[in-house]
Design the sequence.
């Protein structure tokens, strides 16, 4: 767990405000919760100084008042940093990371379609994964979208 | 030169599953490529929130018809981590054996598809015939050719008994001999070398910057393999080589998959040798505590990622699935640029996008459409051998299981 603790230490030294939300979960797993203010700085720090080379996935979460996106970032040696970005559901604006990881494009489109995130800077392209005729403002992976809500949707074109 | 945009899909004979491609050409040369996905989106992540953890295993196993064990295991590892379950070692070994058998069947399947895409249907027929050996083995061990249902929370549902080892080893001998034959074929057969070399190239740097995973990445010299980097199941207890190649093209991807199949045989042998005694499952609680976990798994096509969050009830709060194809599809545009329209199908096939196939019985209909008889797999196989004998070709002695 030595490497994991060193990474945790490095993050909390550089970002003292994140000390309470940076944890070593188990061997090869670290989690960091952050807000919009620090997000890009933490991401760049992890890539530049902590050998993060891969974006495995982005998980969206509906947490009531807040929406979260967890960026699962991996190193060559198998250590994964789960960087969680938490934003208010009222204004779920997050920056794109496609300039850093081009593979993020489809993952971010998923956040847009299924959770209603607004991803600033995401290049134009086909939506994913919902069909073109999907009604605006309906986000299937939010908790208020239930089977009853789905039944009210207009029939597919 | 005037540019022409050709739509391929969502339904097209060259595609094994629905996706909409538009290929922009100058003459024969591809200058742009656009992809619209989502035709297969079935809302499984949402549905997973409405089912219990146990029911979810069987649904998630059906995310994909080929890497069904990959998804089920990846999901279950995350659930077990949240529930802090210590899975018995014997169960981990059995999961590893099924995982590697699945990799062999997937790579044989890919070889056949690749052969078909380049008009080399003899290769397709041979490799799919040989694939039956591993399908039969999976059916014998798990009861199913695909969607094995071997996993349960806290272990596996079926044991592999010592008396089952000899037929497994006999089948591995056959498979290894066939894989060696295909490796020789790949290294010497001019049709394969000329058609696949220099097609769909992706440099090492492009692989890293595009986030490509699995055999596609390893064929460009990037030695990333979750089994080695972030070991799960029994992979830390066996030795194996992470196969890579520096051809950086479709040819390299073929070689990597074939050599990997050989490594898989060796992993299964080691698992059988070292199989620990003990139970195959521990009792898991119905309610999974609050917590979250991310699980990674090296599926035949590359890294599979599952995220599971528990909320203290018997249903998960969130299940997230990232299949390897989603990462690899985004690299196809780079792979295709400046190649010819005729290369689209093999370059796309070379990342091995997923499709599902399973059928165990064939209903023979007469002209009026009413069912005459039901043939099972062995009857169908015997019938087909007899039919070819009637035409003067004897396959009986080639049939590994006859």
Sequence:
């Amino acid at each position: 767990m030595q490497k994991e603790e060193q990474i945790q230490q490095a993050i909390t030294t550089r970002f003292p405000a994140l000390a309470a939300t940076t944890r070593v979960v188990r061997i090869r797993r670290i989690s960091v919760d952050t807000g919009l203010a620090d997000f890009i700085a933490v991401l760049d720090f992890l890539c530049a100084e902590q050998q993060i080379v891969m974006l495995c996935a982005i998980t969206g979460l509906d947490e009531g008042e807040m929406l979260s996106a967890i960026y699962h970032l991996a190193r060559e040696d198998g250590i994964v940093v789960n960087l969680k970005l938490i934003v208010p559901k009222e204004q779920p604006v997050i920056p794109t990371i496609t300039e850093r990881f081009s593979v993020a494009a489809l993952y971010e489109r998923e956040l847009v379609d299924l959770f209603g995130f607004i991803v600033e800077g995401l290049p134009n392209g086909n939506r994913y994964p919902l069909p073109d005729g999907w009604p605006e403002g309906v986000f299937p992976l939010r908790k208020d979208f239930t089977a009853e809500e789905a039944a009210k949707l207009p029939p597919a074109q | 030169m005037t540019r022409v945009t050709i739509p391929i899909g969502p339904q097209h004979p060259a595609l094994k599953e629905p996706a909409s491609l538009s290929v922009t050409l100058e003459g024969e040369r591809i200058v742009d490529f656009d992809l619209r996905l989502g035709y297969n989106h079935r809302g499984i992540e949402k549905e997973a929130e409405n089912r219990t953890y146990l029911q979810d295993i069987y649904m998630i196993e059906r995310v994909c018809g080929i890497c069904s064990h990959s998804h089920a295991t990846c999901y279950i590892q995350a659930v077990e981590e949240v529930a802090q379950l210590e899975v018995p070692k014997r169960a981990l070994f059995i999961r590893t054996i099924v995982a590697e058998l699945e990799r062999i069947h997937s790579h044989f399947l890919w070889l056949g598809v690749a052969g078909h895409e380049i008009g080399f249907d003899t290769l397709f027929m041979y490799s799919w015939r040989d694939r039956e050996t591993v399908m039969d083995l999976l059916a014998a061990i798990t009861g199913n050719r695909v969607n094995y249902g071997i996993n349960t929370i806290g272990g596996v549902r079926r044991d592999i008994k010592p008396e089952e080892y000899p037929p497994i080893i006999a089948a591995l001998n056959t498979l290894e001999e066939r894989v060696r034959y295909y490796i020789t074929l790949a290294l010497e057969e001019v049709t394969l070398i000329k058609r696949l070399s220099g097609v769909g190239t992706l440099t090492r740097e492009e692989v890293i910057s595009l986030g490509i995973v699995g055999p596609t990445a390893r064929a460009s010299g990037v030695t990333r393999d979750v089994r080695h980097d972030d070991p799960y199941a029994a992979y830390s207890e066996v030795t194996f080589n992470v196969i890579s190649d520096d051809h950086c093209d479709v040819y390299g991807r073929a070689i990597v998959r074939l050599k990997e199949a050989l490594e898989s045989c060796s992993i299964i042998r080691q698992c059988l040798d070292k199989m620990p005694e003990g139970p195959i499952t521990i009792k898991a609680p119905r309610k999974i505590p609050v917590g979250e976990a991310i699980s990674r798994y090296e599926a035949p096509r590359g890294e599979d990622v599952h995220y599971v969050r528990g909320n203290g009830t018997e249903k998960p709060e969130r299940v997230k699935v990232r299949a390897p194809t989603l990462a690899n599809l985004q690299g196809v545009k780079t792979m295709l640029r400046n190649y010819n329209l005729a290369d689209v199908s093999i370059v796309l096939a070379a990342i091995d996008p997923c499709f599902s196939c399973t059928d165990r019985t064939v209903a023979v209909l007469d002209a009026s459409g009413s069912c005459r008889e039901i043939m099972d797999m062995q009857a169908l196989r015997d019938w087909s051998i007899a039919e070819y004998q009637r035409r003067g070709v004897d396959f009986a002695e080639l049939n590994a299981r006859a």
Remarks:
- The mean pLDDT of chain A is 94.
- The domain at 2-141 of chain A is CATH 3.30.460.80 (Beta Polymerase; domain 2).
